[in-house]
Amino acid sequence: MKKWSYLLIGLLIGVVFATTGNAFADQIKSMVGQTVAGEYSVKVNGNSLSENAIVVDGKAHVPLRAVTDSLGASLKVDGKTIQIESSENSSSKQTDNMAQSVSNKYQGWPISKLEDRKSELEKFVTDSEKDKESMLKSLEKYSKFKTEYSGNEKLMEKLDSETKDTEERIKAAENNIAKYKSDLAEVNAALTK
């Protein structure tokens, strides 16, 4: 009799876990197998980002890290929570004395947060410089194609369009690199104080 009760309890527990797992799996949104319906360039304050937004199921998905960086906001992923803090919010949290010395927006940050931001900015600079190099190589290819296929009008129009788009993306990358390097200098200054 005891064996049957243990078996029944085990079976009930198994059923509960099995149905709970399925219910939880139904709540998770997955983009696997979804078709990207389109791709859009993203401009923040008039500057194009090097990464594009995609459209899946009628919803635009933007590159959040690039957007927050271009706005000067900090982005932190903590478990399943994404925290975004604008420079306005972080400065309002500082004391009045620190708010008066606005020369460095990183003053008053804890050293661990400064070091994390420094690592992020160094990675952004490296990645942006790689992207810029890749785009410069693309411009060289377009130039070679233009000389080889100068008689093909459709191809010339396409190459002109690609060249213009790539040049705009290079300018955006250069702006981002300059901004990241400026922020990096401010972080280094805050770390030395």
Give the strand order, joined by hyphens, for the main sheet.
1-4-5
Q: Structural class of the helices, strands and pairings? A: alpha+beta
> Percent range for helical residues?
55-70%
Q: Report the order of strands and helices.
A: HEEEEEHEEHHHH
% residues in beta strands = 5-15%
Low-confidence sequence ranges: 94-102
Q: Report mean pLDDT, rounded to a whole number.
A: 76
Q: What Rg do the Cα atoms give?
A: 25 Å
| Biggest sheet record | 3 strands, antiparallel
- Overall geometry comes to flat
Distance between the termini: 75 Å
Total helices: the number is: 6
SS elements, strand count: 7
Structural summary, described in words:
The chain has 193 residues and is an alpha+beta fold. It has 6 helices and 7 strands. It has a 3-stranded antiparallel beta sheet, with no helix packed on it. Helix 5 (111-148) runs antiparallel to helix 6 (153-192). It is flat and about 90 Å long. Residues 94-102 have low confidence and may be disordered.
How are the elements arranged and paired?
Elements: H1 2-27, E1 36-40, E2 43-44, E3 47-48, E4 53-56, E5 59-61, H2 64-71, E6 74-78, E7 81-85, H3 87-93, H4 96-100, H5 111-148, H6 153-192
Helix pairs in contact: 5-6
